[in-house]
Amino acid sequence: MAISTGGGGADTPMSDINTTPLVDVMLVLLIIFLIAVPVAIQTIEKLRIPVIPAVESKDKVENLLLTVSTTDDGGRSAGEPGFTGASRGGECRIYFNNITPVSSAELRDKAFKRLDAIVKRAGGPQALMANPEMIPQVHIRGDVNAPWRCVAGAIYNVQISGYPTVGFITNPIDPNG
What we know:
The chain is 33% helix and 13% strand. It is of the alpha/beta class. Strand 2 and strand 3 form a beta hairpin. It is elongated, with a radius of gyration of 29 Å. The protein starts with 19 loop residues before the first helix and ends in a 9-residue tail after the last strand.
């Protein structure tokens, strides 16, 4: 082993890098990455929305009902002959009032016009704020295979239209089995 004592004269600067702090920092980063990587690579693909007992809600006629699904592997929508069920990789399908298929832009427009008519019929925003029970809500029924991007898009479009409350509808289960 050799030790450099800075030989070569007192006037020459030492040009060797001190590697001890560099190694310390690299070891700390290695430990952080060893801990963080397994947490970061977990996926939510295995997520299943729970089926819970549904209670009877006091629905108002003003509530907007949306159904979110996707096309099947063959590109067919629900209601078309040969539809085999929603596919995770399919195109998003949104049904306004559970009947009319709409695009994202149509959903924004129809939801806004519907909410605007309800607000005008109630006597303006102040009348609705005085009685919060009259404020309409959006209820979304999402297909179990519909990806989150479809559901999130529907939520975004109705919230941009002015609806303050968005909820989800579940299928009722038989308590007797």
